[in-house]
Design brief:
The complex is a heterodimer of chains A (448) and B (304). Chain A is mainly α and 448 residues long. Helices cover 51% and strands 6% of the residues of chain A. Chain A has two domains: 275 residues, 3-Layer(aba) Sandwich (Rossmann fold); 67 residues, no CATH class. In chain A, helix 4 links the parallel strand 2 and strand 3. Among the domains of chain B are: 124 residues, Rossmann fold, CATH 3.40.50.620; 42 residues, no CATH class. In chain B, 45% of the residues lie in helices and 10% in strands. Chain B has a six-stranded mixed beta sheet, sandwiched between helices. Classes of the chains: A mainly alpha (448), B alpha/beta (304).
Chain lengths: 448, 304
C-alpha cells in the first residue's frame, strides 16, 4: 500500500525508512508540478515558490498562450504591434510574442507548403519625455536609450521585428507639436486627469502607428495587477458602467483591436521571470504623481496583495463578472464598417437578437456612455451652443470632471489644443447622437 | 429624501444606536415629520448587544433622545433573544470573528424588533461613506450578488420588512457637522471589541480618497449603481429557516447556525466557508446566508 501509487517504488522489500525520509525531504523542496527539479525559492510565500524555474516559466507562458488562443487574439495573417514601455510587463509580453512567433516560424520552415503563414511583429515605444510627468520629468530620453531598445528588439530575431520609437507629440501634425502637447496637458487642472489624458494620448499614438504601418493587432502588456488597479480606480472615478469595456482580453473599439494576453499574469510573476531569464528592462515611465487617485489606488492594492496574495486576481475576477460590451471580442470582418453595418441591420431587424446595440462613446477616453448619461449631457449641449461646449457634452462625466477645465474660456482654449483625432471623434459622436435622437422618426417613416 | 421612501400613515422604526448617524437620522426624521406633516408613525429601535462599557452607555444616549424627540423606544437585547450577550460570546470565542456574531445577530434582532413594533419599514443611518466602503469590499471579496444590491436605497422589499437608508448620499462629514452645529446629543466611542481590521483598511482608503477628491465617495456609489450585472447572475434562493422562521437561503439561518455552535461549544460552526452539517455541498454558504455582516457597519461607534 505504501509503495503503490505515486511513489512508483518497485523494490521487492517495500519502502525502506531511508527511502521514505528521502522522499519527504524531496517533497519539501521539489517542484509541485514536475516533482523532479528543485523549487526556485524554498520557503517563499505564494504559489510561485513551489515551482522549479522551468515549470514556472512554462506555467506563465501557458497562461499567455491560453489567453491568446482561446480568444483568437493572433491569427497567422496578423501583423502584431507590441507596445513596449521598457517595463517588465511589456518586456515579458514582447518575449512571449517573440517565442510564439519563433515557434510558428520553425513550423513554417519545416514544411512551408503545408503550414500556415507566420504572423509578423513590430514593436512600438512612445516617448513621453516631452510632457514631463512625475518627479523625474526632466530626464530626457536620449538617443542612447532608444538605441538600447533598438538593440534589444534586434536581438529578438529571427524573425526580425520593426522598431518604432515615436514621441507622443506626433499626435499633432504641425511644427510646434511639442509646445502644443505640453500646453494641452498643463491645461488639465486635476492631477489624476493629467495622468489619464496622457494615457489616452498614448493609446492614440499607438493606434496611429498601427494604422500608418498596417498593423492589425495591438498587444499591451497589462497584467492582472494593473488591471486590478484599473478596476478600483475606475470605480472610484464613477466609471462603473464602462469599466467592463477596458478589462477584457480583447477590445475592438479601436481601428486596430487591442489585446491583453497577460491579463492572467501577476506583476510579481512577471518580475520573477525577468529576473530568472535576465530579461533586460528599462524603467523609464516615472509612475504616478503622489497626489493622484491612481497612485493611491495602486498603493492600496499593493497593501491588499501583501495581506492576501490572491487579492488582485479576486478583484479582476469580480469585475470580470460584469457584462462586457459587444466590442469585447475579435471582430469577424476587419473592414471597420461594423458599426455602420450593425446600425443598418438594426433598422431592419429590430427584433433580432443579432443586432448589436449602438453605443456612443466619450470623445476623450472612448468609454461607452450610459444612455441616461448622454441624455443629461445633451441638455448641457443645448445650453452652451459653442463648439467646445458641444464637445464637453460628448464626454463622459468622469472626463468632464477630471480632464476638462470647468471655466468656459479655459475649456475653449483646451478644445483648440486637442489633437485632431479627438475632435474628429467628437464630430462622429455628434452625428451618431443626432441620428439616435431622430431614429424614432426615421423608423416611423419606414414603417409608414 | 423624496425618493418615494415613505408614504403617509406608515409606521417606521429608526435603528438607533446612539451614534451620530442614527441620532441625526432620528432628529431629521422627527423634525421633518412634524414640519411637513409626513404623517409617519416613528419609533426608535435599539439593540442591546450586551457590551459593558460601550452599549450600556450608548443606550443611555438613546434614552435621552427618546425624551428629546418624543419618540417611543423599544430596546431588544441579545440576552433575551439568544440567551447570550456579546460579553459572554467574546469570553468564549475571543476577539476573532466576534464581529461576525454581532453583525449576524444584530441584523436579525433588528428585524425581529421591527416585527414586534409592527412597523412597515426600518430606516438605518448608513451614510455615503459606509455604502462606498461596502461597494469596495464586495469587489475585493468577489461578491457579485451583494455588489449588485448593496447600493439599493431600499433593500429587502421582497422580505417582510424593507430597510432603507435615507443618508445614502450624505457624506459622513456632513452628518458629523450637522450633529455638531445642532449640538445633538450623541455617543461617540469605538466598540471595545476591536473593530474589524479588514474593514478598517477600506475605511482608511476612502478617507484618503476623500482628501484628494471628496466626490470620489459619491462616484463609487455611482459606479456601484451603474455596474452592468447580469440579472441572471445566480442569486441565492430565499427560503425560511426551519428553526426560527427567519428568511434564509439555507436550511437554517446564519444566526441559528452560529447560536447552535455557541450552545454546543463549537464556536467555529458557521464561520467562513465551512462545510458544516447543514450546508454541505453548498458552495456559496456565505453568499447565501440570509443575514450578513458585510452590509452592517463596522461594529463600533456606528449603528445598525
Amino acid at each position: 500500500m505504501a509503495c503503490s501509487g505515486s511513489s512508483g517504488c518497485q523494490s521487492a522489500g517495500g519502502c525502506s525508512k531511508i527511502e521514505a525520509t528521502r522522499q519527504q525531504q524531496q517533497q519539501r523542496v521539489s517542484c509541485v508540478k514536475c516533482k523532479a527539479s528543485q523549487v526556485m525559492a524554498p520557503g517563499a510565500a505564494g504559489e510561485d515558490g513551489r515551482y522549479c524555474p522551468d515549470c514556472f516559466r512554462g506555467n506563465l507562458f501557458g497562461k499567455f498562450r491560453f489567453a491568446v488562443t482561446s480568444n483568437s487574439m493572433i491569427s497567422p495573417t496578423d501583423r502584431v504591434l507590441v507596445a513596449f514601455s521598457g517595463g517588465p510587463c511589456s518586456r515579458v509580453a514582447l518575449q512571449f510574442v517573440h517565442d510564439m512567433q519563433q515557434k510558428a516560424q520553425r513550423n513554417f520552415d519545416a514544411s512551408p507548403d503545408r503550414s500556415l503563414p507566420v504572423f509578423s511583429v513590430g514593436v512600438a515605444f512612445i516617448d513621453e519625455s516631452s510632457i514631463g510627468t512625475g518627479p523625474l520629468s526632466c530626464d530626457r530620453i536620449d538617443e542612447a536609450v532608444i538605441k538600447e531598445m533598438e538593440t534589444l528588439v534586434s536581438c529578438l530575431s529571427p524573425p526580425s521585428k520593426k522598431f518604432h520609437a515615436v514621441p507622443i507629440q506626433n499626435v499633432y501634425p504641425s511644427a510646434d507639436k511639442e509646445e502644443r502637447v505640453k500646453e494641452l496637458v498643463q491645461g488639465v487642472p486635476d492631477d489624476t486627469g493629467k495622468e489619464d489624458l496622457l494615457l489616452h494620448l498614448r493609446m492614440l499614438s499607438l493606434q496611429t502607428i498601427a494604422r500608418e504601418h498596417g498593423y492589425t493587432k495591438l498587444v499591451l502588456g497589462s497584467c492582472t495587477s494593473q488591471i486590478a488597479c484599473h478596476v478600483l480606480s475606475s470605480t472610484v472615478k464613477g466609471r462603473g458602467y464602462s469599466l467592463p469595456a477596458d478589462i477584457q482580453y480583447v477590445d475592438s473599439r479601436w481601428d486596430t483591436p487591442v489585446v491583453l494576453p497577460l491579463r492572467d499574469c501577476l506583476a510579481q510573476e512577471i518580475s520573477i521571470l525577468c529576473r530568472l531569464d535576465g530579461l533586460k528592462t528599462l524603467e523609464l515611465q516615472t509612475g504616478h504623481r503622489p497626489s493622484s487617485i491612481n497612485s493611491l489606488v495602486s498603493s492600496f492594492v499593493k497593501l491588499l496583495q501583501e495581506d492576501n496574495p490572491s487579492r488582485e486576481s479576486t478583484i479582476v475576477r469580480t469585475a470580470g463578472k460584469l457584462i462586457p460590451f459587444h466590442f469585447n471580442r475579435v471582430p469577424e470582418n476587419l473592414d471597420g464598417d461594423i458599426h455602420l453595418a450593425s446600425r443598418h441591420r438594426k433598422k431592419f431587424q429590430v427584433k433580432s437578437d443579432l443586432s448589436i446595440p449602438t453605443e456612443s462613446f466619450c470623445s476623450i477616453c472612448v468609454s461607452p456612455l450610459k444612455k441616461d448619461n448622454s441624455m443629461s449631457s445633451q441638455s448641457a449641449a443645448t445650453e452652451s451652443h459653442t463648439k467646445s461646449g458641444d464637445f464637453a457634452a460628448l464626454c463622459c462625466s468622469s472626463c468632464r470632471y477630471q480632464i476638462l477645465p470647468s471655466d468656459a474660456v479655459l475649456l475653449k482654449e483646451f478644445y483648440t489644443r486637442l489633437p485632431h483625432p479627438i475632435t474628429e471623434r467628437a464630430k462622429d459622436g455628434q452625428w451618431s447622437l443626432l441620428r439616435e435622437r431622430i431614429e424614432d422618426y426615421l423608423l416611423s417613416e419606414n414603417g409608414g | 429624501m423624496e425618493n418615494k421612501l415613505f408614504s403617509p400613515g406608515e409606521r417606521i422604526a429608526i435603528g438607533a444606536s446612539g451614534g451620530k448617524d442614527s441620532t441625526v437620522l432620528a432628529y431629521v426624521m422627527s423634525t421633518l415629520n412634524r414640519r411637513h406633516n409626513y404623517g409617519l408613525d416613528l419609533f426608535l429601535l435599539s439593540i442591546d448587544e450586551g457590551i459593558t462599557g460601550y452599549r450600556d452607555d450608548s443606550l443611555e444616549t438613546v434614552k435621552r433622545n427618546q425624551i428629546q424627540y418624543g419618540l417611543p423606544l423599544k430596546v431588544l437585547s441579545y440576552k433575551e433573544l439568544y440567551g447570550w450577550t456579546m460579553d459572554d460570546i467574546v469570553k468564549m470565542i475571543g476577539l476573532k470573528n466576534n464581529c461576525t456574531f454581532c453583525g449576524v445577530f444584530r441584523r436579525q434582532a433588528l428585524d425581529r424588533g421591527a416585527a414586534m413594533l409592527k412597523v412597515d419599514k426600518v430606516v438605518t443611518g448608513h451614510n455615503a461613506d459606509d455604502i462606498a466602503e461596502t461597494v469596495l469590499l464586495n469587489i475585493l471579496r468577489g461578491d457579485i450578488a451583494r455588489l449588485s444590491r448593496c447600493t439599493y436605497i431600499t433593500t429587502g422589499e421582497d422580505g417582510p420588512i424593507p430597510r432603507c437608508k435615507p443618508f445614502k448620499y450624505t457624506y459622513e462629514k456632513e452628518i458629523v457637522m450637522y450633529a455638531y452645529f445642532k449640538k445633538l446629543d450623541y455617543f461617540s466611542t469605538e466598540c471595545i471589541y476591536s473593530p474589524n481590521a479588514y474593514r478598517g483598511f477600506a475605511r482608511e482608503f476612502i478617507k484618503d480618497l476623500e482628501r484628494i477628491r471628496p466626490r470620489a465617495i459619491l462616484d463609487i456609489i455611482k459606479s456601484g449603481e451603474d455596474f452592468r450585472i447580469s440579472t441572471t447572475t445566480k442569486m441565492p434562493e430565499q427560503g425560511t429557516c426551519e428553526r426560527c422562521g427567519y428568511i434564509s437561503s439555507q436550511k437554517w439561518c446564519k444566526a441559528c447556525l452560529l447560536l447552535e455552535g455557541l450552545n454546543r461549544g463549537l464556536p467555529k460552526l458557521g464561520i467562513g466557508r465551512t462545510k458544516g452539517p447543514h450546508n454541505c455541498g453548498h458552495e456559496d454558504t456565505n453568499l447565501g446566508s440570509g443575514t450578513n455582516s458585510i452590509e452592517s457597519k463596522q461594529c463600533g461607534s456606528l449603528d445598525f
